[in-house]
Structures are given as C-alpha cells and as structure tokens.
Amino acid sequence: xxxxxxxxxxxxxxxxxxxxxxxxxxxxxxxxxxxxxxxxxxxxxxxxxxxxxxxxxxxxxxxxxxxxxxxxxxxxxxxxxxxxxxxxxxxxxxxxxxxxxxxxxxxxxxxxxxxxxxxxxxxxxxxxxxxxxxxxxxxxxxxxxxxxxxxxxxxxxxxxxxxxxxxxxxxxxxxxxxxxxxxxxxxxxxxxxxxxxxxxxxxxxxxxxxxxxxxxxxxxxxxxxxxxxxxxxxxxxxxxxxxxxxxxxxxxxxxxxxxxxxxxxxxxxxxxxxxxxxxxxxxxxxxxxxxxxxxxxxxxxxxxxxxxxxxxxxxxxxxxxxxxxxxxxxxxxxxxxxxxxxxxxxxxxxxxxxxxxxxxxxxxxxxxxxxxxxxxxxxxxxxxxxxxxxxxxxxxxxxxxxxxxxxxxxxxxxxxxxxx
Length: 420
Description:
Helix content is 49%, strand content 13%. It is of the alpha/beta class. It has a seven-stranded mixed beta sheet with strand order 2-10-9-8-7-3-4. It has a two-stranded parallel ribbon with strand order 1-12. It has a two-stranded antiparallel ribbon with strand order 5-6. The termini are far apart. The model has no long low-confidence stretch (mean pLDDT 94).
C-alpha cells in the first residue's frame, strides 16, 4: 500500500515538473525562406516555381554535384582514409589551400606568417567564431558592428548573440536598385574609429549589388583611415563572375591599404557542398608571434562550441585545390554555374523588355551572383504567389539559380502582369 502511494506521489510530482518547466517558452517565428519552401511544396499547380532557395540548380532545376567534386570524392573513397578526429584547427592542408585561394599563393601575408587560419562550420560558423573573438578581445568598450542595409538576415543574430551591438550602414539605393555609394562612404567616415564593418566580398546577398573595383578602392581607403576592423563574408568566390581571382578583389584591396581584417570563407556555393558545412576563418595580423596567439584563442573558442570540425567536405576541397588538374577542372565548374545564372539574367531582362514593360530592368543584369533584388513590392510578390504560383521572399529577392530556360518566359510574363 505504501509503495503504491509513493508511486502515485512520484508520478504526480513528475507530471507537475514536466508541465511547468517550459510552459513560458514562446513560439519562435518561422524562417521566412523555409516558409516559402513549405508553401511551394504544398502547392499542387504544375506551373509552380520556387525562387526562394539559395542553392544552385541546373537548367532542369535539379541539384548538381560538380565534376571536380565527383572526382575528388572518388579519390578519397579509393584511398580508404580513416575517420579520426581532425585537430581543433581543422585539416592543415585544407586551411592552407583555403588561404592560398583567398590571399594568393605568392601573397606576402602568408609568406610572413601573418594570417591565422582555422577550419570552420561553413561561412556561418566562421562568422560565429570571429564574432566571439571580437567580443572577447576588444576590451571593455566593445565596438559596434556595422552591417549593410540590407544584408543576410543571419548576420544580426550571429553578432548579437555574442553580446555585440549592431547597426546598419547605407548600401542599397531603392531608387536606382543599385549601390548607395555616397551614403556608404559617409557612414564609414561617420562611425567611431575602430568600429567593425562587415562587407560581402562579392555577390551581395540579398541584392546582388557589388561595388566596382574603383569604388572598393575608395571604400577600403576610407575604412583604413578610420582604423575600422573589417569582416569579409566570402560565400561566392568564383560563383559570382566565374573567375575566382576577380571575385576576391575586395579582400586583396583592403590588404593593399593596410586594413586589418577577418575573412569568412564558405565552400557551400562554389563547390556545391551545402550539407558538408565546409568553411574557413582567417584573421590578418602584424607578426608571426601575433598569428600564433590569435590561432590559440580561436582554438579555445572552438573547443567548447563544436570541438573538432567535420573532415569529409574539407578533404574534398583540399583534394581539388591541392591538385593542378582538379583545380583547373573546378575553375571550369564554377564558370559553368556562374555563366548559367548570368544567362538567365540576360534572358529574363530581354523577355521583360520585349513584353513592353514600362519599367527599367537593367538592374537584373547589372547585379551579379545567385540573387536578384527585383524591386518588386511585397504586394506584387503576393500576387506572383497567389495568381501565378511563383514563390519568393516578400522583399522581392529572386534566386536566379531557380530560373531555367524552360520557365523564364512564364516568369517574365508573370512579373510583367503584376507590375503593369
């Protein structure tokens, strides 16, 4: 009898505890991009288009495993390599090849051991590491992190979750659907010295608007004059223009003027390794001694966060970039992807102009990379979805990777209809 009573008391206590512990946790908002995909998947109309996903598709709207990655994967499988833990810093050859791709094999910083590098969980992980590093080692007066308006939505929580204040600087000009160059420069100069400024290296997300080389020169000089710390988000090297050297211009320009920077590299888009989470974080330093100190602290930050990075994707990238023939093949792969997206931009603009649209559409081809900031209003986007079964985020961002030669006419006709 006593045992049965005790059991009931324990059960009631457990039930009370279980019911009360998380009752005050609020429901989080849905990710807007995931919401677009969910709505698309539920739509049964055969004409439906998903232009919200930030992943490359071929002209049949299918995911792609690029040829250089296929060959590297085959070689890795044949080598029968062990699946031991990687060092906290990551695979050494992967980090070396990543830095060479960004800074140049003949770069003075690498020769002088003035770059601290560590493998990261893609670009997001690299950003999270540098955010924590800045938060820990900026002293009592932590700098404000200035982000372009608009920017990738994840930038704000990444830095905010590390206890850093964020602010926006002018970047996109809706009137021209291009760069607000004057506003950008003014905000760099108005910010307190030693602030943090984040720039997209190329193929700005979500706008596709990039500064021209001569504008990068002025931007870098203005930032260096204020001694700002620069965070460069590199998600599309090679994928934007088809030329990895052209796409990394901004990084090398900031180095040229003596700015100190952090580079966050992702290999999701340019290698098609979205699910492998392959990235690299590097910080420029003033000496080899400083490099060793910075690297030691990055490892301390990474250790309780994820301990060791994954090895398979890093092996793929290292195999490709470390082999002359495979690296050349990869150059062809990224050019093929970039060229297809550029071709879709050209076709979409041409179709809209042929339909007699009263609006200018030159921004479609002026912008670059995966995304086109169409200039469509939220209400026009809603009409695209409700009337034409075309799905995209309500800020008007179109993933050009989701456009194919088979449906570009339908897309143009739909855009023309909602913008009359």
